[in-house]
Amino acid sequence: MPKKAAELVGGIDIGGTKLHAVVADQQGRVLGRARKKSKAERGFAPLMRRAAEVLGDACRTAGVKRPRLAAVGVGAPSPVLPDGTAVRAPNLGWENVPLVETLARALKLPVHAANDCDAGTFGELVFGAARGASTAIGLFMGTGLGGSIVIDGKLVTGANHKAAELGHMVVVVGGRRCGCGNRGCLEAYASKAGMLRRIRHHVLCEGHQTLLGELLDGDFSAIRSSVLAEAYGAEDPLTVETLHEAADVLGAAVGSLLTMLGPEVVVLGGGVLEQLGRALLPRIESAAARSTFPRSAFGDSELRLSRLGDDAVALGAVALALRRTGDGR
Questions:
Q1: pLDDT class of 294 with cuts at 50, 70, 90
Q2: Residues 6+ apart with CB under 8 A from 170
Q3: In a designed cystine with 314, which of 11, 24, 273, 303 is the match (CB 3.0 to 4.6 A)?
Q4: Number of Cβ atoms within 10 Å of the Cβ of 262
Q5: 36 and 53 Cβ atoms separated by less than 8 Å
Q6: Closest CA to 139 of 175, 165, 176, 173
Q7: Residue 188 has pLDDT above 90, yes or no
């Protein structure tokens, strides 16, 4: 029996390299999915057209027409102001772009947007690994390191709607240069971009040998999580050392967050941890336990791997759209 229009919501995950869309119901059941390359270098307007197209593809996969959707949620790699302006997305070349207004005009549907990690954490809270919790933290290790905080069921965005950029907490004073321009950020150590900079330095500047050279055909300009997992599984020394450092630093940051906020659940996700989460989780937990004060507080929270995987941001955008339109929880 076909779903009622009000039960169906679209979700779009806008990333630096890919667009991922879902059509889902109020329970988070995904009826259709679709993907496209972002092609962000073409500019904001073409990317918005591609976002509309990928949602249309997801609708076709779900067997529904786009006008049947009650609303559309969007997760974008930028702080998003209440008026729908995306403040800054370096990977997309955005500065103060009218995200919601533009996409709503293209889709002719209500659009609700949020930072992608806010959406991912909220998705895990409503549909995934943190379901049933009221206070949770999400940390997502992919190309960058993003995070978000939920307290009493509400996202923490601060008075300026730009807060909880957890990847840019300084964890090493005067440490490695981060892509944001600062030094010592969590992202500079616990992200693919940060790890790749470390690996590239050891290989190109210090002459270290690594299986990654073979797996990447000598091209150290980018790296996939699956390649890191393959090299780690083969016990490549440089890969193991780099990933263990990332896990230790991430764990120490988790311990600090447990000390500050005492969440019920910390969800760990993103492409790297989708591939390597089970292998690295014990190390992350050990580092977190050593860094939590009082030490006993570590046992009051639970570290869990993401359950929504690649759908986390898109489904979180669905959950936020449901909440904001009053159709969901």
A1: very high
A2: 182, 183, 184, 185, 186
A3: 11
A4: 12
A5: yes
A6: 165
A7: yes
On the question of a cis peptide bond just before residue 294, with omega within 30 degrees of 0, the verdict is yes
Sign of the Cα torsion 293, 289, 275, 219 reads positive
Tokens standing for residue 43: 């500019």
Q: Do 203 and 167 contact (CB within 8 A), yes or no?
A: no
CA 246/CA 188 separation, integer angstroms: 9
Contact residues for 221 (Cβ-Cβ < 8 A; gap 6+)? none
Residue 100: how many CA atoms within 13 Å on its side-chain side? 21
| pLDDT tens digits, 5-63 | 458 999 999 988 899 999 999 999 999 999 999 999 999 999 999 999 999 999 999 99
Q: Which two tokens stand for residue 264?
A: 């019920």
Q: How many residues does the chain have?
A: 329
Question: Among candidates 52, 45, 29, 54, which has minimal Cα distance to 109?
Answer: 52
Pairing outcome for strands 136-141 and 265-269: parallel
* Other beta carbons less than 10 A from residue 141's beta carbon: 31
For residue 176, the one-letter residue type is: R
The single-letter code of the amino acid at 73 is G
> Could you give the domains of the chain?
5-122+311-325 (3.30.420.40), 131-306 (3.30.420.40)
The DSSP element (H or E) to which 304 belongs, if any, is strand 302-305
- Cα(213)–Cα(79) distance, integer angstroms: 36
CA 82, 84, 90, 91 dihedral sign is positive
Calpha distance 204→10 (Å, rounded): 45
Q: pLDDT tens-digit profile of 89-140? A: 887 889 999 999 999 999 999 999 999 999 999 999 999 999 999 999 999 9
Distance CA 283, CA 304 (A): 13
